[in-house]
Structure formats: C-alpha cells, structure tokens
Amino acid sequence: MGILVAIEGLDGAGKQTIVGRIHAAAQERGARTATFTFPRYGESITADLASEALHGAHGDLRNSVYAMALLFALDRAAAGAALKAACREHDLVICDRYVASNAAYSAARLGEQIESSSVVDWVSDLEFGRFRVPVPDHQLLLGVPPEVAMARASGRAASDADRPVDHYERDGDLQSAVYAAYTDLASANWMSDWSHAADDDAVAAVMSLLS
C-alpha cells in the first residue's frame, strides 16, 4: 500500500504548487505517484453545487454549515474507490485538500474549539466512518498566514476570470479562524501525524516519508 498524504491550508497558501513539486520530486526518485484535488470542481455534481452556493446561488444553502460540509464530504465519498485503488497501485498519493479542510472550515464557521468540537467529530464519523474514505498516513499544513493567502487568492482572481474569489475567501475573519483551526488540528495530530511547513520544507517533509 502506498502512503496517502493530505496537503492542507487556506486558499492562496500554494497547495497546488507544493503538490506539483512533491509529485515531481517523488517521480525523480522513481516513486509511483498519484494526485487528487478536492473539491473536484467540474467533475463532481456535489462539489459544483457547493461552489455555486459559495458564489451566491441556491438560496440560503451556504448559510448551513452542515449542508455545505455534507456536499464536500459527498464529493470525497464519490472518489473513495479511486483513492483506495490509487493507494494500492502507487507509492505516494497526494491530496490537495482532504477531510481536515471540512473539519477546519466547519469548526471555524461555528466558532467551536477543535478539542471540544462536535462538528469535527461529526465530520470524522461521516467521512472516515460512514463514507469510509481512507484515513491519511500524514497531513501537512502549509504555514502561510491568512493575510498572505488572501492577497494571493485575490491576485489570482484578478488574473484568471475562471477563478473568482468565493464567499469564504472574501471573509477575512473566517480565514483567520480557519487558520487557527488548522493549527489546532495539526497540534493535536488529528487522525494522523502532521507536519507544519512551507515551500522547500514542505517538500522535504513529505519526501522524508518515502525514505
């Protein structure tokens, strides 16, 4: 079985870039690698519904923390078989966002502390329990603070009309709360071992798992 690694962080933290660099570094070592990006916009109806809600569609859907979390969870559930197959067939499987994203955003939106959060327990029970998506072997939080990540996301939106900022990305208080929730998840080693790094250190942290 291969190693399943989740790369977590705010929108604009550079997850896609880091995933690409890890993928390239692993292939240089001869490791068989696969990558997944969540939410699977353009591939999954539930992911697309969530995206549409975050851009103002579907009435008050986005106001429900549990409804939004369920849509993102259903997206991963639909990819569960492919994830499990990839873990069987590859040495390293890298996810750009995974279940911890649902936990962090949901807890932050409800103002719950990670150590006593009922919604974090609900996300874990739903995704790993009921939907049986694979538990990651390691999770890496990109240490990019909210103000930097938000500036990057806004700059990306200005240069790419297909990637406008959504309701979550525009909310500075939410982004700060999500970053704090991610940090607490990492400190608690929620569901697996975590590392907290950025840039070259992030690549090195994942590559060390293949040693």
Automatic annotation (TrEMBL):
GO terms for biological process: dTDP biosynthetic process; dTTP biosynthetic process; dUDP biosynthetic process. Keywords: ATP-binding, Kinase, Nucleotide biosynthesis, Nucleotide-binding, Transferase. Residues 7-160 form the Thymidylate kinase-like domain. PROSITE patterns: THYMIDYLATE_KINASE. It is an enzyme of class 2 (transferase). It holds the Pfam family Thymidylate_kin. InterPro entries: P-loop_NTPase, Thymidylate_kin-like_dom, Thymidylate_kin_CS, Thymidylate_kinase. It catalyses: dTMP + ATP = dTDP + ADP. SUPFAM superfamilies: P-loop containing nucleoside triphosphate hydrolases (SSF52540). GO terms for cellular component: cytosol. One of its GO terms (molecular function) is dTMP kinase activity. Its EC number is 2.7.4.9. It comes from the Bacteria. Belongs to the thymidylate kinase family. Phosphorylation of dTMP to form dTDP in both de novo and salvage pathways of dTTP synthesis. This is Thymidylate kinase. The lineage of its organism: Bacteria, Bacillati, Actinomycetota, Actinomycetes, Mycobacteriales. The gene is tmk.
